[in-house]
Design brief:
The chain contains 15 helices and 16 strands. It is an alpha+beta fold.
Length: 518
């Protein structure tokens, strides 16, 4: 190829690229100009400052004035050549009187406009060629390379933006309510077999080592024994001499015990409510499973009503307050969780009482969300005397099943009797069956009330509470009220100082987004 000053309209241009390394600074400027050329075709590329153009174009003389705008195809060719040069660690060869060693040449031909025929070359070496058959091939190569660069850059930028957006959402979710029970390690990362629990950043459960549990319970000494039920034994624990807790030890239950353990951790790890017991941590030691809760100083409602004291500490106002607290906890599960949660095992032994007799619902091992996808394989569970008739007969489970159990607990509070009592060595009688005929007779109602509260109760309030209990234990589920209606009926009956006129507002909890195993 030879250089000719006089060029006809059919002349072509090509850019010679020599294999020379670029400095870091030049590479940065190189990329800057490349982006400007590719992403903005109308840009007047040749009007960039001379010191920037010198990164990839060496001027062969003094530039007295900026050259005209190069044709679009010429600029595309230049961009393609620049990209190839960059990818091969090369730069565009400068125009020099003596030829420089050339390792690669791309003949990217494009007609020059007539106005530029007479001008001497400024930044690129113009070489006359007559091989028209190379034009299309080289043009395609340049355009393809430039397009690939643009697509790669755009894709990388888009992916980075997506990652950034998701990280912002994750950080935002951490601003939600948190508590001491929610701090620790993600449960799904602790045990590989439990990583099906898709807990979010917020739902964190503290892993407690077995040695700490032994120390806190004095090796599960009998003096710290609080009670038992099902597969569990409950012990009082004191961590570091300051934090008191209740430790539920699960063992010997096989697969049922394991399912209840997983289910309780999964649900209690997400739920936050003043009338639902708080989860503090868990432990897995061999075949034994441990769940650590906040300690409720006054034990269970069952122990208070049917224990040695026979409910002497529970005045009329305190009993109605306990009923109100239970209703608030159930309302949260039924109305403020999405999907709603059915407890399935509401009973007096699962109602825990704090130092001021505030009540909290516990034991969520049998709880399930409404619409549980595998209802056909759901094992019939519950406690005799609290199980709703429709669930016992045909396995039909709804929120109204919990309402029935609540009605039974309400009858316990009113009468101080157990849900099922033996009338003979081989015979038992249900509290509901025994009480229903008398609950509907105002003249008989005062005679069946717990003697402990006989002198402190408000007779008018007694009739109202009895009416609520009767509705809750109806055999037909459709006749039972919603727990929200029950709550509204009880609020006016509780003194202001005990929270009777206060309504706890609850945030909406989406269990469908946070629970995958039910």
């Amino acid at each position: 190829m030879i250089e000719e000053p006089g060029v006809t309209k059919d002349c072509k241009t090509s850019f010679c690229v020599t294999k020379l390394p670029l400095s870091d600074l030049k590479e940065k400027r190189f990329i800057l100009v490349l982006f400007a050329a590719v992403l903005s075709p109308p840009l007047r590329l040749w009007r960039y400052p001379r010191d920037l153009l010198a990164v990839f174009l060496s001027a062969g003389g003094n530039m007295k004035r900026p050259p005209p705008v190069a044709p679009l195809r010429l600029r595309i060719c230049v961009v393609g050549s620049i990209l190839v040069a960059m990818l091969t660690d090369a730069k565009v060869a400068s125009m020099s009187p003596s030829p420089s060693p050339i390792s690669s040449v791309w003949n990217l031909s494009v007609p020059l406009p007539p106005s530029s025929i007479a001008r001497p070359p400024i930044a690129v070496q113009i070489i006359v060629q007559t091989q028209h058959h190379h034009y299309h091939k080289e043009m395609i190569l340049a355009v393809v390379l430039a397009s690939v660069a643009v697509v790669a850059i755009a894709s990388s930028t888009f992916c980075a933006w997506i990652v950034w957006q998701r990280s912002r959402q994750t950080l935002g979710s951490e601003d939600l309510e948190s508590s001491d029970a929610g701090r620790g390690l993600p449960f799904g990362t602790i045990l590989g077999r439990y990583n099906s629990f898709k807990l979010s950043k917020k739902e964190l459960i503290t892993l407690i080592d077995y040695a700490s549990l032994e120390s806190a319970t004095n090796k599960f000494n009998e003096s710290n024994f609080l009670g038992e039920g099902g597969f569990a034994f409950v012990y009082k624990a004191c961590f570091n001499g300051e934090v008191f807790a209740a430790v539920k030890k699960l063992s010997g239950g096989g697969q049922d015990c394991e399912k209840e353990f997983e289910n309780e951790l999964d649900l209690l790890g997400r739920i936050r409510h003043p009338n639902i017991v708080s989860l503090l941590g868990y432990c897995v030691h061999g075949e034994e499973r441990f769940i650590v809760y906040e300690l409720m100083e006054n034990g269970s409602l069952e122990s208070q009503l049917h224990g040695p004291s026979h409910g002497s500490a529970l005045t009329w106002n305190i009993r109605i307050k306990i009923a109100l607290d239970i209703a608030r906890g159930l309302e949260y599960l039924h109305e403020h969780c999405n999907p709603p949660i059915i407890h399935r095992d509401l009973k007096s032994s699962n109602i825990l009482l704090g130092s001021d007799f505030n009540a909290k619902i516990s034991d969520f091992g049998l709880a399930v969300p409404v619409g549980y996808h595998n209802r056909s394989s759901l094992k019939l569970s519950g406690t005799v005397g609290y199980v709703a008739p429709e669930y016992l007969l045909d396995g039909k489970l709804t929120e109204k099943s919990d309402v029935y159990a609540f009605g039974v607990v309400l009858l316990e509070l009113l009468m101080g009797r157990k849900p099922v009592e033996k009338t003979a060595p081989s015979q038992c009688q249900s509290l509901v069956t025994w009480a229903m005929p008398q609950l509907t007779d105002r003249s008989k109602l005062p005679n069946i009330v717990d003697p402990v509260i006989m002198n402190t109760m408000d007779l008018k309030h007694l009739y109202q509470v009895a009416a609520v209990a009767v509705l809750c234990v109806q055999r037909e589920p459709s006749y039972r009220p919603l727990i929200t209606d029950v709550l509204h009926s009880l609020i006016p009956l509780v003194p202001v100082e005990l929270g009777g006129t206060l309504r706890v507002s609850e945030p909406l909890l989406s269990v469908s987004q946070k629970s995958s195993g039910h």
